[in-house]
Specification:
The protein is built from 15 helices and nine strands. β5 and β6 form a beta hairpin. The protein folds into three domains: 70 residues, no CATH class; 221 residues, Hypothetical protein af1432; 68 residues. The chain is globular and about 70 Å long.
Length: 380
């Protein structure tokens, strides 16, 4: 039990006169009701008088499977856990990388796009936090997801339609489809790329387009975004050395998202760059082109301290950024500890535009000595 994570339940998850699909606990992990118990309306009402009720993650997953689905929303349509739902997108990408010729690959991909867009709409701060906090061992999978999240948020800011954004998100998720898990292999490679590897990387946008066509993906925008996501406005990109007039805005969005996410994500050969430094780096590249405009949008979307960043405040409290503020350097922070090595249960919220709670520094995630349940933090 202690190794399992508590998962916050919505009150509508507990139904009267029906067997419970999972056990119910309070925050102290004390059992309130066992799995399978049928509660009366009076009992449900009494339980819901408790401020918060929980189950454990494994029990929720088992309940989903027993209901004939792997999808937590089918257990209770009112329960939405942002990080869990985005992790399911990663699971789908993993299966597509392993079996791209599967007859169900395209339908799984379309469903994942809708799921990602839903989370970004309902909880954009949680979606950004996924980029900063993700620990998926498969770099290729998590990087594609992170890039797609940023693309969705940027295109929403630009007021693109849901349909047009879906093509962009799909392109971001599949931009490196032909590379499969080669990206992960290269991260472990100490030697420089050989000639064959360089050619595979050079050709991967074109090869990925061909694989998408074989999967039944024929939308011209989607395919063009994938084919040109490594092109550069000065003609130095690949595979066709296109110039700005021949590069669609969607491809530039993917390219910029790709660069930012690569900076903040750890690699085997280097530590991740702090988010405020990554934002500063891309801002320094700003110019008067379409790319310059997009960089300004990215800075507005992310801020200097994106959700998911651990920060030390001026008063020495340790917190996690949970929401972007009105100013790019003044987000909303939840206190999670008074000391970097000891977690405390706290619902204290700090508005860091208050000078008493100003951010002193970003804290490296690997220096945090306890687990944080992100679905609890960003439950919507």
């Amino acid at each position: 039990m202690n190794k399992s994570k508590l998962v916050l339940l919505s009150k509508s998850a507990i139904q009267a006169n029906q067997p419970l699909l999972f056990p119910i606990y309070n925050r102290k992990r004390n059992i309130i009701a066992e799995k399978g118990v049928v509660l009366s309306s009076a009992q449900v009402k009494k339980i819901l008088e408790v401020s918060e009720v929980f189950t454990i993650d494994q029990a929720l997953k088992s309940a989903a499977i027993s209901n004939g689905t792997q999808n937590d929303k089918d257990v209770n349509k009112q329960i939405t856990f942002p990080h869990q739902r985005l992790s399911s997108v990663e699971d789908t990408l993993q299966s597509i990388c392993e079996y791209p010729s599967s007859s169900t690959a395209s339908s799984k991909l379309i469903n994942s796009i809708a799921r990602l867009q839903s989370v970004c709409k309902k909880s954009p701060d949680a979606a950004i936090a996924k980029i900063i906090t993700d620990t998926n061992d498969n770099y290729a999978v998590r990087h594609a997801l992170h890039t797609a999240i940023l693309c969705e948020l940027a295109a929403t800011h630009l007021r693109w339609s849901t349909e047009k954004r879906s093509y962009l998100v799909g392109a971001a998720l599949t931009m490196n489809l032909s590379l499969g898990f080669m990206q992960d292999e290269l991260l472990d490679q100490a030697k420089p790329l050989n000639k064959s590897q360089k050619q595979i990387i050079h050709d991967h946008p074109t090869d990925s387009v061909e694989m998408l066509k074989q999967m039944g993906i024929n939308n011209p925008e989607w395919l063009e975004y994938v084919g040109k996501h490594h092109e550069s406005i000065d003609g130095s990109g690949y595979p066709n050395a296109c110039h700005q007039k021949d590069i669609p805005l969607g491809a530039l969005l993917i390219n910029l998202s790709d660069v930012y996410c690569a900076k903040v994500s750890g690699r085997n050969y280097r530590e991740p760059i702090y988010a405020n430094v990554a934002t500063r780096d891309i801002f320094l590249e700003k110019d008067n082109t379409d790319k310059g405009t997009l960089i300004e949008i990215f800075v507005k979307i992310l801020g200097l301290y994106p959700p998911g960043c651990y920060v030390r405040l001026k008063n020495k409290e340790l917190g996690i950024v949970i929401k972007r503020g009105k100013q790019i350097n003044a987000p909303v922070v939840r206190v999670i500890s008074e000391d970097i090595g000891e977690q405390v249960v706290s619902k204290s919220i700090r508005q860091v535009d208050d000078k008493n709670y100003a951010i002193k520094e970003i804290v490296a995630v690997d220096s945090i000595c306890f687990d944080v349940n992100y679905d609890d933090v960003w439950n919507i």
